[in-house]
Amino acid sequence: MSALFNFQSLLTITLLLICTCAYIRSLTGLLDRNKTGFLGLFWKSARIGERKSQYIAVSCVFMAINILFWS
């Protein structure tokens, strides 16, 4: 089944995108230039990962436990 039609897969992909963008932005200034358009999605994901980091971390831990033990 596609990740678009399965809510758990969609949530996992979204969390991975947020975590990856925040990590790339912390290493390089690559995501600082494009704040609009398609690449603006990655900039916004990095900002969410930076500002809501404790909630994203808890969500990632909960998703990992969910995938390991209940899938």
From TrEMBL:
Its main location: Golgi. It is a single-pass type I membrane protein. The chain crosses the membrane at residues 53-70. It comes from the Eukaryota. The keyword Signal applies. The keyword Magnesium does not apply. It is found in: Golgi apparatus membrane. Involved in the early part of the secretory pathway. PANTHER family: PROTEIN KISH-A (PTHR13229). This is Protein kish. It comes from Daphnia magna.
